[in-house]
Amino acid sequence: MSEQYDAVVIGSGEGGKFLAWDLAKAGQRVAVVERRWIGGSCPNTNCLPSKNEIWSAEIAHLARNAGRYGVETGPVRVDMRRVVERKRAMVAGLVDMHLDKYRDSGAELVMGSARFTGPKTVAVALNAGGERVLTADTIVLNLGTRPAVPGVPGLREAEPLTNIEALELDALPDHLIVLGGGYVGLELAQAYRRFGSAVTVIERGDRIAGREDPDVADELARLLAAEGITLLTGTEVVRVRGRSGDAVEVAVRSGEGEGVVAGSHILVAAGRTPNTDGIGLDRAGVAVTERGTIQVDDRLATTAPGVWAIGECAGSPAFTHASADDYRVVRDALRGGPRSTAGRLMPYCLFTDPPLARVGASETEARAGGAEIRVARLPMRAVLRTRTTGLTDGFMKAVIGPDDRILGFAMLGTDAGEVMAAVQVAMLAGLPYTALRDAILAHPTTAEGLNALFAAVPPR
């Protein structure tokens, strides 16, 4: 027999769990179906665990370079078992926090795998055995994505690491080969280099961080190479032999010819695949795009009445904060509010050291759009705060429109994410760049560099 709910959320990731808690606190009967990761991938396998281990790697890096600051440390050794234990302890605490949230809100957490059997009807194969059938007038799909493994001959047989397995390694790879020069690949490449592994990054595109302006990507590449990371760009992986964890050989092809990269482990960081297959979306009347994401409008409504989608599975940007805003969009849509995904100003950060942060249009995007723009750039060494810390690498850059509004901001440098937030607020408020140019900003902070950056905007 089916059980009737007011709302059923499939997947307990960021947007879905917040919506479930919100609806349950409002008195609705709500169930959240989750296959494995309570709270979604962010607190379990992706955002927070990776930043946890990246921070351990940064501590190792600081310890090795303590002599620059007049501090003697002696030899530095990384115990990967303790690194992983620290990360696992954090994850366990986050899971407990989520369970408390479910209890406090009244939303029911159902552990199992869901599939549609018809419109607004979901069968759940319970992890503990048995099955439940749930029906609801409102169903929210918060399905997430999984790491994509390209169809390179021999790659699957090599049993490569994804970000999930890489964050569980309790022994240091001798030589980690990373396939992909995007966010995940670069963050983990630098972390494992700082832990002590040899690292090679293989990127098919002409540059790492391919969505960034050439000057940003080139500076990031220079900094990573200076740490001893080998970057092979414009390079295609032809085949893979061996087994990750033992020994692997990656045959590659580039404009310079063919070659082989030998290593101990291989990490695939080549994009994500939506978890939209195998749950019977067609039975519910939910259409998907050619990319496999769920087809939605700007209020995240699917093609099936009463069914909504949130997060990466809906084609939203692959960030936890994007999913959190998706929650607000669906919440307001259910209440008849006007909020939508149209025109969202979406920030993002790459947590390398130094970090990269950007919001709004890049210089490349702005010029392609035909806008009359001005570009200001400031090296981080010109920010006096960096003279006190010695963290002078990188630069900040702003793109200014013809009406003096800020079209975009990028920063590769210490505290980039925090500084970006200040610029984002100015952009949301529609302030002219002169507001930040003339603002009284505390000295000596990294954000104080915004005075000098916007003072460097060329005249019309």
Task: Give a quick summary of the entry.
By secondary structure, this protein is an alpha/beta fold. The chain has helices at residues 14-25, 41-44, 47-64, 80-105, 163-166, 183-195, 214-226, 281-284, 320-334, 363-368, 384-389, 416-428, 433-437, 449-455; strands at residues 2-10, 30-34, 108-118, 121-126, 131-141, 145-147, 175-179, 198-202, 230-232, 235-243, 247-254, 257-263, 265-268, 272-274, 307-309, 348-350, 356-360, 374-379, 395-400, 406-412.
Note down, in words, how this protein is organized.
This protein is an alpha/beta fold. The protein has 3 domains: 2-147 and 273-334, FAD/NAD(P)-binding domain (3-Layer(bba) Sandwich), CATH 3.50.50.60; 156-270, 3-Layer(bba) Sandwich (FAD/NAD(P)-binding domain), CATH 3.50.50.60; 354-455, FAD/NAD-linked reductase, C-terminal dimerisation domain (Enolase-like, domain 1, 2-Layer Sandwich), CATH 3.30.390. The chain has helices at residues 14-25, 41-44, 47-64, 80-105, 163-166, 183-195, 214-226, 281-284, 320-334, 363-368, 384-389, 416-428, 433-437, 449-455, and strands at residues 2-10, 30-34, 108-118, 121-126, 131-141, 145-147, 175-179, 198-202, 230-232, 235-243, 247-254, 257-263, 265-268, 272-274, 307-309, 348-350, 356-360, 374-379, 395-400, 406-412. It has a 5-stranded mixed β-barrel with strand order 1-2-3-4-5. Strands 16-17-20-19-18 form a 5-stranded antiparallel β-sheet, sandwiched between helices. A 4-stranded parallel β-sheet has the order 9-8-7-13. Strand 16 (348-350) and strand 17 form a beta hairpin. The radius of gyration is 24 Å and the shape is globular. The model has no long low-confidence stretch (mean pLDDT 97). NAD(+) binds at residues 180-187, 203, 271. InterPro entries: FAD/NAD-bd_sf (IPR036188), FAD/NAD-binding_dom (IPR023753), FAD/NAD-linked_Rdtase_dimer_sf (IPR016156), Pyr_nuc-diS_OxRdtase (IPR001100), Pyr_nucl-diS_OxRdtase_dimer (IPR004099). This is Pyridine nucleotide-disulfide oxidoreductase RclA. Belongs to the class-I pyridine nucleotide-disulfide oxidoreductase family.
